[in-house]
Amino acid sequence: MVPTPDDPLRGRCVCGAVQFEITAPLREARYCHCHRCQQRTGSTFSVNAELDAADYRLLSGEDRLACWQPPDGQGKWFCRDCGGHLFSRRSPDAPLVYVRLGTIAGDPGVRPQWHQWVSSASPWEPLPDDGLPRYDETPPSR
Fold it and tell me: In degrees rounded to 5, what are phi and psi of residue 119?
């Protein structure tokens, strides 16, 4: 599926208090193995995809959103009720949003293209042999 304004992708947090739609194709999906993603998710990585902020629209729950803003990174937006992580953004008015693929209902239409921060990858879970490029930190072009 290729999302459009007339036929968007939809997503939500765990409890459903925050719901959103995506009206254009996602791009540049990646696995992130940094310590912050590990601690934030309680897992070995997070999976995120980039899109223009104009193509990400909250349908409900704006009043349920909270943001943790680390001093040296992007704001991590989540639902106050269930704690479900939804997206990250450099600032509230930044032009790009990085949506958590697990929050999308159905096929997001994009696949991860690389692994980043493999220098921080969890030692107890080997990286998959999936043929994707691996970067110690972020890819050189980012």
Answer: -65, -20
State pTM to two decimals: 0.89
Given this model, what pLDDT does residue 42 score? 87
Beta bridge partners of 46: 32
Say what the pLDDT of residue 142 is.
59
Q: Which residue has the tokens 């998710």?
A: 41
| CATH fit for domain 9-120, picks 3.20.20.120, 3.40.50.11290, 2.170.150.70, 3.40.50.150 | 2.170.150.70
Phi-psi region of 46 (alpha: psi -120 to 50; beta: other; left: phi over 0): beta
Cβ-based neighbours of 85, under 8 Å, separated by 6 or more: 40, 41, 46, 76, 77, 78, 100, 103
